[in-house]
């Protein structure tokens, strides 16, 4: 089912929502006074659509860097006569007091505010406007919502230093919230009296008090007939707590788990406590005791355990107290406890660290509210993906993507998540992944690169991108990925390994793409960035992969792109070319890449005069004799000269070397090449070669062009015969055979 889910296209509803949010002005809204968004007066939207608009908006602001948030977005939903809201989920810095204030007339049924640190006590007052309809409320991690700003009365000097003091609101309670059943107060600020706050609530069904320290929880018994879910994650427990919990007989879900790294806990779990839960909480279907130390041995001796297959039957349970269960639990949280490694665990789903299934269950259960646990679970998944083989690949990928999206600013999750993605997207898993899923991976990788300048995250993200077919799979984010890579390469201090991977990616991105892409990337400063890298390497006198890739990238980006060729010349590219030749006379790859690039420059008629100097022509002529990289360097040098010769004798504005002498050397070079040479070059078009055929001004250029075509179509017929035909090469060759000025051997080859 997961495979199907990840493959199916987005629903029409999702596509329309996304489109409207990205084009609010063109669809639902108009701009008032050039700044405020207003809903068109004839628009009426039901809650099914409005909820989705708000929730997707929050998601987009959080996970899509290109998406611009709107100051006045929430005011679009201020009038329930035209827009209805019922269930909304808001997160983090995206939401402020005035946003909630804007929608106060709505009859909200469900309001989740997660880590909304900008909300203050003003929003507590706004909550009161929803009190008559609200059934579910989460204030998880809203650490300032119980603070108001108090202006000191007598304003003395203090005023300037601290004009507003944060004061804890003591008098707010849930009085009047008559329908409230589900409440999450996780990570509530210290000093708020939880008991007083909750007392007015008649019949709570679910309560989350994660991370709150309460010595006395006796007040919970007022809901012993209604409470079905209780979460006390990271609360330091005592015998009193346990006695109270045992009285909440309607509980179906109990979570007393903890983060064993966060602080010292006096409480230890015992066999007696687990027995108490099993005996008293007869409706329990889900229990989480992750992170707890067991004070005594609760396990059944291993002799008994060895019998037969693993079983989830309570009667066979390896954990003694759970033999008293009437039926297996739906969920049992045992992450970072010794119990998860036992053989018979009476639960359908177990979170733990024993195997892939348990680890994935942990990531799934804890991602939303417990990043500190999730990052350790993802770390375990990383080891599984790296050392063994993942058997639930799609589930693993989707869980990691969700965690990375949800915790964009959590360094641990970004580091472990990006590392896990590298192993989960490599080639052995390729077949199982849909285009949609792989695009989601690319999106979160780019998000990570954007928000984290941290070396490990950057390296992991770059390495993960190497698992994709470039440029094809990155085409849909082409601009963005190039900007990010150039950004990495332009940093003053650079990590060698990241630099190498980033240059490799840049090179791959401009290889075999359309000219408009190359022009766009050129305008982003690509040429300049590569030349700066080359300059640095020259100064260090090192010719490594970065140096070679940088020249190769310049060769690719100048292919049939005159603007980029011009930039290369304007930014002293020729000076660097000469210096590299001199500094690294033996580096064949380097010579090939540099001359390939100069071949591109020489194809641009307007730029050729800049190559017409004694120094450059002598260098190109001498390279005709080069044996570097087979015939490639000699071939490319001859190509550069062929284009220059094509401009005729009157363009030859230098005394030394003589034009005839260079022509002679060109003939000699071409005659020395093996016509069956296998090639280290890739032509997307023959146009620059074909233009040298119908002319009589430079027979040697004509011969070079004919040799090039002959070699390519005979060694690689499947690739290049169709290209030659498509680009009209056949009639050009036929016409040339009839030309008086063409040399006999050229005609032979053309025939």
UniProtKB/TrEMBL annotation:
Q: Where is the Zer-1-like leucine-rich repeats region domain?
A: 196-337
Q: Which Gene3D superfamilies match?
A: Leucine-rich Repeat Variant (1.25.10.10), Ribonuclease Inhibitor (3.80.10.10)
User: The Protein zer-1 homolog-like C-terminal domain covers which part of the protein?
Assistant: 404-750
User: Is Repeat one of the keywords?
Assistant: yes
What's in the GO CC field?
A: Cul2-RING ubiquitin ligase complex
**Pfam families named among the record's database cross-references:** LRR_Zer-1, ZER1-like_2nd
**Keyword set includes Acetylation:** yes
Q: Which family does it belong to?
A: Belongs to the zyg-11 family.
Q: Know the name of this protein?
A: Protein zer-1 homolog
This chain's source organism reads Eudyptula minor (Little blue penguin)
What does the record give as the organism's lineage?
Eukaryota, Metazoa, Chordata, Craniata, Vertebrata
């Amino acid at each position: 089912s997961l495979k199907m889910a990840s493959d199916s296209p987005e629903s029409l509803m999702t596509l329309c929502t996304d489109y409207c949010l990205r084009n609010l002005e063109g669809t639902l809204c108009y701009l008032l006074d050039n700044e405020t968004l207003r809903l068109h007066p004839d628009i009426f939207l039901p809650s099914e659509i409005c909820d989705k608009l708000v929730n997707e908006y929050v998601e987009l602001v959080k996970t899509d860097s290109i998406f611009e948030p709107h100051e006045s977005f929430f005011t679009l939903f201020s009038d329930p006569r035209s827009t209805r809201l019922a269930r909304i989920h808001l997160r983090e810095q995206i939401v402020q007091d005035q946003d909630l204030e804007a929608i106060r007339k709505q009859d909200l049924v469900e309001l989740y505010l997660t880590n909304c640190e900008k909300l203050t006590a003003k929003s507590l007052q706004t909550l009161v406007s929803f009190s008559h309809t609200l059934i579910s409320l989460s204030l998880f991690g809203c650490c300032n919502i119980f603070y108001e700003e108090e202006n000191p009365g007598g304003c003395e000097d203090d005023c300037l230093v601290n004009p507003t003091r944060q004061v804890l609101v003591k008098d707010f309670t849930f009085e009047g919230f008559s329908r409230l059943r589900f409440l999450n107060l996780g990570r509530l600020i210290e000093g708020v009296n939880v008991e007083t706050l909750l007392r007015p609530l008649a019949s709570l069904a679910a309560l989350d008090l994660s991370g709150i320290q309460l010595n006395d929880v006796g007040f919970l018994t007022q809901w012993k007939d209604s409470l079905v879910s209780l979460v006390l994650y990271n609360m330091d427990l005592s015998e009193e707590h346990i006695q109270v919990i045992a009285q909440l007989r309607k509980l179906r879900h109990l979570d007393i788990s903890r983060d064993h790294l966060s602080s010292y806990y006096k409480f230890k779990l015992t066999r007696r406590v687990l027995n108490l839960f099993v005996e008293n909480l007869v409706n329990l279907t889900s229990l989480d005791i992750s992170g707890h130390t067991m004070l005594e041995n609760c396990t059944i001796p291993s002799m008994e355990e060895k019998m037969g297959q693993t079983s989830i039957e309570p009667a066979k349970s390896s954990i003694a107290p759970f033999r008293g269960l009437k039926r297996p639990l739906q969920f049992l949280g045992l992450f970072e406890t010794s119990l998860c490694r036992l053989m018979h665990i009476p639960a359908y789903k177990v979170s733990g660290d024993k195997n892939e299934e348990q680890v994935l269950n942990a990531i799934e259960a804890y991602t939303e509210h417990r990043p500190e646990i999730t990052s350790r679970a993802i770390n375990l998944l990383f080891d599984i993906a790296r050392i063994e083989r993942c058997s639930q690949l799609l589930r693993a990928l989707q869980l990691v993507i969700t965690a990375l999206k949800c915790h964009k600013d959590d360094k641990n999750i970004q580091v472990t998540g990006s590392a896990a993605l590298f192993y989960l997207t490599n080639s052995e898993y390729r077949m199982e992944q849909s285009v949609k899923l792989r695009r989601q991976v690319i999106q979160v990788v780019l998000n990570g690169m954007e928000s984290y300048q941290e070396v490990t995250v950057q390296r992991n993200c770059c390495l993960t991108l190497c698992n994709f077919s470039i440029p094809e799979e990155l085409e849909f984010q082409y601009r963005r990925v190039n900007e990010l890579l150039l950004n990495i390469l332009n940093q003053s201090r650079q990590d060698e390994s990241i630099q190498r991977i980033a240059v490799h990616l840049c090179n791959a991105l401009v290889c075999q793409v359309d000219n408009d892409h190359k022009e766009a990337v050129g305008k982003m400063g690509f040429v300049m960035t590569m030349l700066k890298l080359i300059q640095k390497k020259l100064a260090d006198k090192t010719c490594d992969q970065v140096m070679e890739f940088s020249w190769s990238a310049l060769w690719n980006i100048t292919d049939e792109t005159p603007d980029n060729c011009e930039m290369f010349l304007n930014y002293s590219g020729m000076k660097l070319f000469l210096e590299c030749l001199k500094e690294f006379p033996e580096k064949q790859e380097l010579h090939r890449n540099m001359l390939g690039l100069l071949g591109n420059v020489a194809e641009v008629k307007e730029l050729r005069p800049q190559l017409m100097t004694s120094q450059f022509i002598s260098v190109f002529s001498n390279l005709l004799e080069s044996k570097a990289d087979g015939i490639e360097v000699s071939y490319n040098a001859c190509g550069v000269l062929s284009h220059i010769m094509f401009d005729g004798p009157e363009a030859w504005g230098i005394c030394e070397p003589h034009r005839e002498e260079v022509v002679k050397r060109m003939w000699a070079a071409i005659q020395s090449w093996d016509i069956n040479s296998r090639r280290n070059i890739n032509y997307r078009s023959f146009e620059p070669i074909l233009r040298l055929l119908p002319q009589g001004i430079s027979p040697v250029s004509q011969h070079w062009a004919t040799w090039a075509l002959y070699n390519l179509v005979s060694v690689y017929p499947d690739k290049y015969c169709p290209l030659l035909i498509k680009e009209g090469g056949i009639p050009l060759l036929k016409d040339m055979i009839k030309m008086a000025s063409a040399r006999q051997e050229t005609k032979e080859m053309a025939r």
